[in-house]
UniProtKB/TrEMBL annotation:
<keyword id="KW-0460">Magnesium</keyword>
<keyword id="KW-0378">Hydrolase</keyword>
<keyword id="KW-0464">Manganese</keyword>
<dbReference type="InterPro" id="IPR006309">
    <property type="entry name" value="DnaQ_proteo"/>
</dbReference>
<keyword id="KW-0548">Nucleotidyltransferase</keyword>
<protein>
    <recommendedName>
        <fullName>DNA polymerase III subunit epsilon</fullName>
        <ecNumber>2.7.7.7</ecNumber>
    </recommendedName>
</protein>
<keyword id="KW-0269">Exonuclease</keyword>
<keyword id="KW-0808">Transferase</keyword>
<comment type="subunit">
    <text>DNA polymerase III contains a core (composed of alpha, epsilon and theta chains) that associates with a tau subunit. This core dimerizes to form the POLIII' complex. PolIII' associates with the gamma complex (composed of gamma, delta, delta', psi and chi chains) and with the beta chain to form the complete DNA polymerase III complex.</text>
</comment>
<comment type="function">
    <text>DNA polymerase III is a complex, multichain enzyme responsible for most of the replicative synthesis in bacteria. The epsilon subunit contain the editing function and is a proofreading 3'-5' exonuclease.</text>
</comment>
<dbReference type="Pfam" id="PF00929">
    <property type="entry name" value="RNase_T"/>
</dbReference>
<dbReference type="InterPro" id="IPR036397">
    <property type="entry name" value="RNaseH_sf"/>
</dbReference>
<keyword id="KW-0540">Nuclease</keyword>
<keyword id="KW-0479">Metal-binding</keyword>
<dbReference type="InterPro" id="IPR012337">
    <property type="entry name" value="RNaseH-like_sf"/>
</dbReference>
<keyword id="KW-0235">DNA replication</keyword>
<dbReference type="InterPro" id="IPR006054">
    <property type="entry name" value="DnaQ"/>
</dbReference>
C-alpha cells in the first residue's frame, strides 16, 4: 500500500527569497494514487502585507487572515500529516521552495526535493508534448468540472489536481478493485467516488492547444531538417 501526499500552496508572491510567504496550504492523502478523503488545510498569517496583484490571483487580503496562525505554529502539524511520503504538486519546485523557506525560517529541516517531489507539470509534458500543461488546460482535456474555480484556492486546486493525477497515472480503470475489507472507510469512499463515475471522454483540443501543438511540431521538423 503506497501512501503519497498531493499538496498546493497560495502565497503573497512568486519568490520567498524576496520576502514572499505562504498564506494557505492544502494537502490530500492518496493511497495507491487514489484519494482517501483524509486532508490537511490551513490558512496562515504571512506576517506581512499581501500585494494587490496576488489578491487578484487567490482572492485573499491581509484582513482575511487576521487571527490565523503563523507558519511556525502549524509547522509540526503539517510535518506530521505529510510524514515521509512522496509529495505531488503542480509545478512542484515552486511549492517546495516556499515550504522549505518557511520550514527553515522556523528551525525545521527542509524537504528533500530530489527524493520526494513528483511534478504533475513534468508528467503532463511527457504525456502530451507540445500541449499546455496548466491545471486549467489539463482539467479541460480530461473533462473535469472547472465551474467553481473563480480564483486560485489551494484546497480546490488540490481536489482538481487529484482528479488530473488519476488520469495522468492511467485513469479511473486503474483504481477498480483496490478497495478491500482492510481499507479505512475514507479510503473506500474515496475509491468508490472515483470508480462510480462514467469513463471521461477526452475533450477535443482547444484552438490554443492546437496552435501550441503545431508550433511544437514545426520546431521538431526544423530541428530534424537542420540535423540532416
Amino acid at each position: 500500500m503506497k501512501r503519497s501526499i498531493l499538496f498546493d500552496t497560495e502565497t503573497t508572491g512568486f519568490d520567498p527569497d524576496m520576502g514572499d510567504r505562504i498564506i494557505e496550504i492544502a494537502a490530500l492523502e492518496l493511497i495507491d494514487d487514489l484519494p482517501t478523503g483524509e486532508a490537511y488545510h490551513v490558512l496562515i498569517h504571512p506576517e506581512r502585507d499581501i500585494p494587490s496583484e496576488a489578491t487578484k490571483v487567490h482572492g485573499f487580503r491581509i484582513e482575511d487572515l487576521e487571527g490565523k496562525p503563523k507558519f511556525a505554529e502549524v509547522a509540526d502539524g503539517f510535518l506530521e500529516f505529510i510524514a515521509d511520503s512522496p509529495m505531488i504538486a503542480h509545478n512542484a519546485r515552486f511549492d517546495f521552495k516556499f515550504v522549505n523557506a518557511e520550514l527553515q525560517a522556523c528551525g525545521r529541516e527542509p524537504l528533500d526535493y530530489a527524493s520526494r517531489a513528483i511534478d504533475t507539470v513534468e508528467m503532463a509534458r511527457k504525456k502530451y508534448p507540445g500541449l499546455p500543461a496548466s491545471l486549467d488546460a489539463l482539467c479541460r482535456r480530461f473533462g473535469i468540472d472547472l465551474s467553481q474555480r473563480g480564483t486560485h484556492n489551494a484546497l480546490l486546486d488540490c481536489k482538481l489536481l487529484a482528479e488530473v493525477y488519476v488520469e495522468l497515472m492511467g485513469g479511473r480503470q486503474r483504481g477498480l478493485g483496490l478497495a478491500g475489507p482492510s481499507r479505512s472507510r475514507s479510503m473506500t469512499d474515496g475509491i468508490n467516488a472515483l470508480a462510480s463515475r462514467p469513463p471521461r471522454k477526452m475533450a477535443p483540443p482547444t484552438a490554443e492547444e492546437l496552435q501550441v501543438h503545431e508550433a511544437f511540431v514545426s520546431t521538431i521538423k526544423d530541428a530534424v531538417w537542420h540535423r540532416e
